[in-house]
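Narrative of activities, Objective 1.

The group set out to show that a structural description can be obtained from nothing but a protein's sequence at a throughput compatible with the screening campaign. Below is one input-output pair from the validation batch, recorded exactly as produced.
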Amino acid sequence: MKFEKVTVNGTYNILYNDHYVAKPIVVDVSGGAVKAGTPLAADGTVATTADGASNAVGILLHDVTEDNPNGALVIHGFIDTAKAEAHSGVTIDDATKTALTTIKFC
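Output recorded for this entry:
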């Protein structure tokens, strides 16, 4: 049996509290790892805003890497906006917040 040790960074908490609902999603990691706190579209790509509307359907709960593109998408709950933006490097704009009606940004 072959064994390979892989070091993975610890999880980063973007939640404001422990009340949330998440669903599984396969994340598009073709551009590299995607960090927790990143808004995602339904197809697993990073959400975009065009003409004042966002295609975001949730916020990625944990970092996702190329070797395992499976993630958890927060679709309901409370997100600590400052933590999510700092970790992901993505600014969560007003259009994204409007599109995510079941998520409260604190």
